[in-house]
Amino acid sequence: MAVTGLIMVLFLLVHMYGNLKLFYGQAEFDDYAYHLRTMGQPYLPYSGGLWIIRVVLLVSVLTHIASAFTLWARSRRATGGRGGGRYQSTRARRGVQRSYSSFTMRWGGVTIALFVVYHLLHLTTDTIHPGGVSSSAYVRTVNGFEIWWVVLSYTVALIAIGFHLRHGFWAALASLGANTSRRRRRHLNALAVAVAVVITVGFLVPPYTVLFGGITA
Amino acid sequence: MNITLRIWRQPGPGRPGHMVTHRVDDISPDMSFLEVLDVLNQRLTAAGEDPVAFDSDCREGICGMCGLVINGIAHGPQASVTTCQLHMRSFADGDVIDVEPWRAGPFPVLKDLVVDRSALDRIIQAGGYISIPTGSAPEAHSILVPKDDAEDAFDAATCIGCGACVAACPNGSAALFLGAKITHLGLLPQGQPERDSRALAMIARHDAEGFGGCSQIGECTAVCPKDIQLEVISRCHRDVVTALFHHGEQQEGPPEDQTGGNLASGPAGD
């Protein structure tokens, strides 16, 4: 769970960096998209490097989901399927100190998984194309983000990712043994908030810039 | 002060239970929560009714026997105390207070507010010990312990095994308890020979007992009467990962279940 989660966080950071290239214009962005496929050439065939990354990510996603189901099943068995709400008293349903993020890990994860499918169909395979078909990744992206509901769906997904990372990044590091003192716990939580905010904001800047006319095809 | 208690009443293991309202009048704000239950039980007994079953022993906050979920919080609203050290001054006159037993799959309710916590004992049996020759106490300076390690080990050793961490955990995990025991022994020189086998055996037992997995939410440490810190879970995971690396080639699958093995495999019929 922790290792695969961290691999995906690393991917998100690189992905976000790539998205910000939208600000450099069509030539630069499409060039970047092209060079993702020539990565590692001539040692690797065309698209070889990209496929290695795709396989690593796919294995990570599947392992992450499998781990989540294992944890969920164990949690259900240990709490009669009712988790933190297993007491008759309704006065401490939100626990003593737990974060909102920690409540939304499972359903947030489902939301993110559904979004990823939609996202790949939209911008990778070009199966669904709000805003029109184009061979240019730049044009596809900009056309898509000129539509308000596309931007809205991305916003919802990125907020879900933000909450998921707020708890997930901290929990991954702590599970791997990084939490060694009260001070360290504070620092790791601050780091998790920072990572969540950077990724959420970093991904939302390009779509909103497009929506408000800052970038045009 | 006068209060109303809504108490989980259950006649026996596996039987259906429900919340029953009991009024307790004329109690002192200086009474402990358990003393209020004592008063209630005297009145119930005098009235010919079944008294409320609950666990308690030292009533000094050090034995780990008492434990009630009060208004949905393990050991009640006051931080860092056991139920016996919670006093009625923490409540207001006229309050309605919900009282329930610990709830977790591995903690079956025996009666009313009493649960069977022997699952925690079995985790200890699996590896929460050190093998040392007994006899007279060794010279204290013969084994040197760095001060920071001694303090961290002692902090972890203050765990009284009450089970509040499990009761509070949304996943029903005993990771804080497990982590406290593994940190306590793993930080001290005397705990080193069995450090790997202890970590593997105890976490395997923890999982086999049906406790949930830890997802680092932190409710456990928030209700812990001994303020065991969440870091013990990280330390436990470190020991488990290290042990897996050490045992990686020899050992496949979870380590052998040692629970009761030493006792059960002793010479029979002697």
Please, how many domains of chain B? 2
What summary fits the major beta sheet of chain B? 5 strands, mixed
Order of helices and strands of chain A: HHHHHHHH
Backbone CA Rg of chain A: 20 Å
What is the CATH C level class of the largest domain in chain B, in words? Mainly Alpha
Mean pLDDT of chain B: 92
> Stretches of chain A where pLDDT falls below 50 for ≥5 residues?
none
Characterization of the model:
- With 217 residues, chain A is mainly alpha-helical.
- Chain A has one domain.
- In chain A, 71% of the residues lie in helices and 0% in strands.
- Chain A is built from 8 helices and no strands.
- With 270 residues, chain B is α+β, with helices and mostly antiparallel strands.
- Chain B folds into 2 domains: 109 residues, Ubiquitin-like (UB roll) (Roll), CATH 3.10.20.30; 147 residues, Orthogonal Bundle (Fumarate Reductase Iron-sulfur Protein, Chain B, domain 2), CATH 1.10.1060.10.
- In chain B, 34% of the residues lie in helices and 10% in strands.
- Chain B has a 5-stranded mixed sheet. In chain B, strands 6-7 form a two-stranded antiparallel ribbon.
- In chain B, strand 3 and strand 4 form a beta hairpin.
- In chain B, helix 2 runs antiparallel to helix 6.
- The radius of gyration of chain B is 21 Å and the shape is elongated.
- The C terminus of chain B is likely disordered.
- Chains A and B meet through helix 3, helix 7 and helix 8 of A and helix 7 and helix 8 of B.
- Chain B: Belongs to the succinate dehydrogenase/fumarate reductase iron-sulfur protein family.
- Chain B: InterPro entries: 2Fe-2S_ferredoxin-like_sf, 2Fe2S_fd_BS, 4Fe4S_Fe-S-bd, 4Fe4S_Fe_S_CS, Beta-grasp_dom_sf, Helical_ferredxn, SDH/FRD_Iron-Sulfur, Succ_DH/fum_Rdtase_N.
- Chain B: This is Succinate dehydrogenase/fumarate reductase iron-sulfur subunit.
